[in-house]
Amino acid sequence: MTEYPRVLPFGDGGLLVEFEEVLSPDVNGRVRALARRLAGVPGVLETVPTFRSVLVVLAPVQGVKSSRDTFGSPFVSSEDLTPSALLALARATPPVPSGSTRVIEVPVVYGGTAGPDLEAVAEGAGLGADEVAAIHGGREYLVYMLGFAPGFPYLGTVDERIRAPRLGSPRVRVPAGSVGVADVLTGIYPLQTAGGWRLIGRTPLRIYDPRDPDPFLFQPGDRVRFTRVDQAEIRDNDLGPARPMRAGHRPVFEVLEPGLYSTIQDAGRPGFRGRGLPAAGAMDAQAFRRANAAVGNDPGAAALELTVPGPVLRALDHATIAITGADLSPSIDGATVALSVPRVMAPGQTLQFGAPRRGVWAYLAIAGGIDVPRPLGSAATYVPGSIGGMRGRRLMAGDILARERTDAGHLAGPQPHVQIPEDEVTVRYVPGPQTDWFTDEAEGVFTSSAYRVSVHSDRAGIRLEGPALRHRDRADILSDGMLPGAIQVPGGGQPIVIMPDGPTTGGYPKIGVIIAADLRLLAQARPGTKVRFAAR
Hints:
Layout: E1 6-9, E2 14-18, H1 25-38, E3 44-49, E4 53-58, H2 83-92, E5 103-110, H3 118-125, H4 129-136, E6 140-146, E7 153-156, E8 171-174, E9 178-182, E10 185-188, E11 193-195, E12 198-202, E13 223-228, E14 251-257, E15 263-265, H5 285-294, E16 303-306, E17 312-315, E18 319-327, E19 331-332, E20 335-336, E21 343-345, E22 350-352, E23 358-366, E24 400-402, E25 424-431, H6 440-448, E26 451-453, E27 461-465, E28 480-481, E29 486-488, E30 496-498, E31 505-506, E32 510-514, H7 516-523, E33 530-535
Helix pairs in contact: 3-4
């Protein structure tokens, strides 16, 4: 029998504290209390409290050597963060007092186009639609956790009479504000997204607004009451249509063609995973830093991340640039541009990209950095959450990129070659945290087989195709926190590696977590590339 709480490794950048495997306000109170205790502890970058676990994200610290008691993590910087110390803290921390939470009223229009599944839920329960609405709004719900999407609250628990399973096939489009039920939980979609919960209503309340200094309405531990209203003004898209943007006062490039997926990125936006917002940031952090170094920028200065087909940019001023990462055949007025080497562009010259030779993601740094707003302290673009960069979106034709400053630092000059995978790549991973959810044979299959990168991969996750990894029993867990590099395995047995835009929580077991230094190799692996895994 498993003894709880317990501390498990989460790659080389995190530790997972698990409490009893039950959906319980008492257990969740211990989770939230531990997360509060860890706030501000040296070496803790952030925490992700979930139903019954706390993911402790460790801050990278240069030159600090970790002990064996830290599972070999190069991130740990405090003796308070060893697994044994964390375990002792988890055991000693009492739950959060039950009367210390906010109560938030949420108006809901039930049924009709606002709640297309209300009638089906009512039929399954043997009740009328009005009865289901009354039962749903007749109790107070606890915000157990936030995840899936920025600000999405997992609320529990639903009256047994109206519990309903998820849809067999998720909807491609669920409108923002939709109120749904899924088994014992109810929740509110903060933005338009895909989703498989049964929709019984919709609220006009904005529960996530990327334009607000504090974008999130809810936090774990809040209480929610639903109030039925007959009608309400509900907008499908509060952000309005996309328009070309000029963010700064020192214009340096005009976007003639935006390319497929060109965004402004920096080192990421940590600190908000517990509210459902991933850090985003560069897919290949090493290539990103080297691009900035080549032109004398700070390592985390905002730069342009791009893939094939790349953008076409016209210089509006003299600019020193450097391109690193994938080789996407860059050229200036038809002349080839060498990678990782600073290059001066004159006004009127055009930078464009051609056939991909190697890799997936390239980085364009401009001396002085790119000047864009920094919501929640970062310029990193997270397109699903409409935040960062150019109003939370990809580049579009007509955008004007401005430099943040004109006094660039010392040019570092040509940078060392950055390894880019070709036909095959091996990445190292730390087993766990849920290796015990897989059969004895699964890990052997995982480390002895070659998987291929799927064409369906993106900034959220790298999907792999190969031998199925079998679970001992079921393929779902009570959702816990996730970091880039987490290798989760759904019921079909095909691994999915979480990337910078990936969800902050997930309900599939994770057989391992790729170490931070090797994640860039997977990011640069093109569809069809063979991937092998080596346990560390």
